[in-house]
Each structure stands twice: as C-alpha cells, then as structure tokens.
Amino acid sequence: MFGRLTTMRLKTAEEALRRGRLDEAWETAVAPDVAKLRSAQNLIARVCDALLERAQQHLMGCRFREALGDLDKAARCGVQTDQVAEWRQRTLRAMEKHDDQQRRQRHALDAASRELAAGALTMAGGHLERVPDAAAGKQPLQDDLAVRAERARRMVADARAALDARQFAAAADRLETARRDHATSTEALELADALSQRLNDQVHQALEEGQLDRAAHLLGLSLRVDDQRPETAELTRAMNWIDQAGRAVRGGKFDDAAMLLSKFCRAVSGAAWAEQTRRHVDEVRERIAEIARGPLGLRETGPGVGGTESSKPDVTMSYHGGLPARAAAIHASAGVEAMPRGAAVELPRRLLLRIDGVGSFLLLRGGRVAIGRAGAQADLPIQADLSERHAEVLRSGEDYFLIASSGVELAGQPVQQALLSPGDRIQLNRRVRLTFERPSRKSPTAVLKLGDGVRSLTDVRRAILWSGPILIGPTAECHIPVRGGPTLVLMERGGTIQVRVMPSAGTPAIGGAATPVGLDQPVEIGDLRLYVQGLSGSSGGPLS
Known about the structure:
The protein is α+β, with helices and mostly antiparallel strands. It is 48% helix and 17% strand. It starts with a helix and ends in a 10-residue tail after the last strand.
C-alpha cells in the first residue's frame, strides 16, 4: 500500500514539473521516501537542470538572492555538484560586483548633491556622468543642475548689463547670485575679473579725488567680487592708512598722521589733496615743536620756582622734563629726601650710556629724532656744516622713516621722504654718513651708526633709537656690541631703567632679577660697569 502511495507521489512530482511548478516538483522529488526510488533519479536530474536554468535567469536579472536560493535547492538534489558549485561562485562574484557598483553610484550621487549645493555645477555633472540613467535619484539632480545653470547664465547676463550701465552694486549682487549657483562658470569668472578691475579703477580715482566715502563703498564691493587680487589688497592697505591718519589727527598724534599720509601718498601717487594734507600736518608739527622750544615749552617747575625767597618750589613738578639733578636740588631745598636709585622719574628724551672699556652711546627716546649741527636744536648733534634740523627719523609702529629738510641722499639717491630699511646709507653732506640698522627681530629699537670721521658729542659712535629692549652683548643681533660675556637687556619700565641678563644655553643668569639703573649711578653686571647720564636740551651736554 505504501509503495503505491510513493509511486503516486512520484507521478504527481513529474506532472508538477511538466506544468512548470518547479518548487512543488523539487519538494516532492527530494523527499526521502521518493528520492530512494530508482525511477525517481531521472526526475531529480531534470529538476536540478530546471533549477540551474532558473538560477541563471535570476542571475541575468541581478536577482542574486533568488539565484542563490535555486542553487541551494539544486545542491540538495545531489547531482551535477561541480556545475552547481561553479554557478554558485559566479553568482557570489556577480553579487559582490553589483553591490560595489551600487555603492559607487550612491557615492557619486551624494557627491553630485554636495557639489550642486556648493555651486560647483561642472563637478556635479562629472559625478552624474558616472551614474547610469536608470539609477534612482539621478534625474532630480540632473533637473536641479539644469535649473541652476540656466539661472546662473541669466544672472551673469544681468550683471554684465548692470556693469555696462555703471550700476556697480547691482552688478556685484547679480554676480554673487550667479556664483552661488555656478561658482566655476567661465562666464562668471571672466565677468568677476572685469568687474573687479573696473571697481579698483574707480576706488583709485575716488582716493585720488579725496572721495573717501565713495572709495570705501566701492572697495567693499571689490572685496565681495574678488578679495584675492593684489590690487585690491594694496587699495585696502591705502584705505586703512588714510583712516588711521584721520584718527591720528583727531587724537593729536601728528607724527603718526604724517607717516601714514606719507605711506598713502606713495600708494596713491595722484592724490594731491593727501600730499597737501601731509604738508599741513607737517606745519602743525613744526608749530608745536616751535612752541615746545619756546618759553612755554621750557617751563619745567611749578608755581614756586622763580618766586620770592619764602616761596618753595612745587615738588610734584620737579621731575618734569627729565631733569633729575635739578629736581634733587629742589627736593633738598624743600627738605625732601633724595629719591633712591632706580626710583621712577620722567626720563629725559636724551640719555648717554657709558660702558667702561667699551664706549659711549647716545640713547634717544621718543618717536621723532632730529639730526643737525652741534649747538643747534638737534637730538643727534653732529660737528659738521649742517642745518639746524638737517633731517629727521620718525618712527611709526615698527617702521622708521627718513624726512629730509635739506639735501639728503639715501643709497646714493636724493630723497625728501623714504622708508628706512636695515643697511640703508644716509648721506647728509659730502662728509657725513650714517648707516641705519635694525639688529634684532626681538626689539623694534634701531641704530644710527656714525661713519668714519663723523663726530658727535663725547665721541659717541652709535645713536640708539630706543623704542624697545636694547641688547648689549657679543652676538650680531645686539644693538651695542661687547666682546665676550652674556647678553644684557636694557629696558625702561614705569619710568625706571632696568638691566638684566638674557639667559642662554650654558650661561646662568647673573644677579637673578632685573637690576635698576639710576641716573649717574654706576651699576656692575658681571664684568661690565655701566652708568646712564641725562642730557639737557636737544643738543647740550650732561645735566649739572
């Protein structure tokens, strides 16, 4: 009875296979009771062939999961095992390759979306070209790219029309919109170049004519269009200089204003108004200097000085003008103890530093140094046939400028105003030569070295333009050269002069913290003995 049932099931499986019900035929054919029949082996082989054929169709349609399912069923048939294994490997390789292609397509679509958002349409188009047309998500991106490209083209055309009509702000706005949509558009880049050049020309013209508000407005547009052009950077610096000069004038800083105006005039050579303004500022500075040299500027003490015998000096004013010796005398007459070494005073503009065994050095404080003949009102007096104020060196920030009032040559060329660079040779007349140096990057202090045969007071060979730490030592970066020993740093702190040893590898600091240096009071640091002396007036000798 059971044998007849098994035979009937085998016939049912054959009928299912004939009618195309492959899964039903396979399930019955591989059942243990049917598969053991000798007559079932032919059916099982035909079912395996049908499963291999259907797996290949799934593979062609990239239905890899279905293909692997049919190959698993074919393997359970127990026939054609080598062929089934081969097709399984083919399917796995094809599935891996397909998954890799899908990942690449997704990455390309993501990259295209990012480039579109950044306005890089050319890059976005390149990514989309690597994606098949049938890929999901490609068409919306292509449509967005086309819309942006057309909008950018229209905005560039509008910007060009606005530029032709000299509507610079509208042109900049349209161009900005076009570049948001298509940042790498050749037409947009060409228009940006033309618009930037036109704007810079207009800025330069406005600066020449003194239309500073218009220049600032146009410069802002130029920076929006292209902030990398060298011409735009130069105009920006010129605009900053003129703004700073205005603030300096309003703050009464006429030296700074003159320097900034000089920079501006070199950058914008046709600005006659700026040159005239600079001359006016120079006149103001000269008037202020004349006042300072007159009786009002020479008044150095309070109401008690010069009065009756019973009137006492105003000791709160006794150090005004940097006259420590006279101030000490006033303090003594008032019954006040002399100030200790290193106490804070208002230092003179001119000091004489003496270093035993090394020499004397003129220390000039302040941002303006006058050079002229000895006996005149000059900060650096020279025994030669010069005018009273033959030339001046002015400091602005870390820059130094040479201003000539008489015949002066710089590097062999006549000059009236010039920015000084390290190594510049200054010729005041046929015999007077000076060299400008900036020895150290650690300090803005500069040095004027007197040439051979040039004589100043007390055999000074170097004038130190003191605006930061002064280095004294054996290295090339020192302002004052000294053979051997450590490097010393001379500095001003709160109205006092201090000196300390600059620590270096293998050289222990001597004396620890900074040592105060009082005027006319010797100080010994290591093997060096130095003292600082105040100088009166502009070109006189030491204070008495």
